[in-house]
Amino acid sequence: MAALQLLVNGVALGAAYALVALGFVLVLNATSAVNFAQGDLVMAGGLLAVAAAPLIPLPGIVLLPVVLVLMAALGLLLALAAYLPLRRRPPVSVFISTIAVGIILQNGAAILFGPEPRAAPPLFGDDTLHIAGLAVPEQSLAIVAVAGLLIGAQQWVFARTQLGRRLRATAQDPEMARACGVPVTAMILVTFAIGTACAGAAGLLLANRYFVTPTSGGDLILKAYIAVTVGGWGSVPGAVVGALLIALFEVGVSSVLSYPVALGALYLTLLAILVLRPQGLFGEAVRRRG
Amino acid sequence: MAERRSAVILVAGALALLVYALAFASPYGLRVLTVAGVYALAAFGFQIVFGLGGALSLAQGAFFGVGAYVTGILGSRYGFGFEATFPLSMLVPLLLALPVGLAVLRLESHYFALATLGIAQVLHLLAVNLPELTGGSNGLAGVPAAVLFGRAVQRGLPMAGLVWGLVALGGLIGWRLARGRLGRSLAMLRDDPLAAATLGLDVGRLRLAAFGISALFAGAAGALAVHTQRVVSPEVLEFPVMVSILTIAIVGGRGRMAGAVLGAVLLLHLPEWFRFLERGYLVVYGVALLLTVVLAPDGLTGLLDRIAARLFGRRPRASAVAMEPPRPPNPPDGLAVDDLRKSFGGVRAVDGVSLDLRPGGITGLIGPNGSGKSTVINLLSGLERPDGGRVRLGGREVTGLRADRLARAGLARSFQAAVLPIGVGVLEAVAAARLAVDPDAATAEAHARWALDRLGVGDLAGQGCDGLPAALRRRVELARSLVRRPAVLLLDEPAAGLTDGEKAELAVLLRELAEEGVAILLVEHDMGFLLPLAGRVLCLDRGRVIYDGPAGGVRRDPAVAAAYLGRAVPA
Question: Which chain regions cross the lipid bilayer (chain A) (predicted)?
Answer without folding.
Answer: 6-28, 40-56, 62-85, 92-113, 180-205, 225-249, 256-276
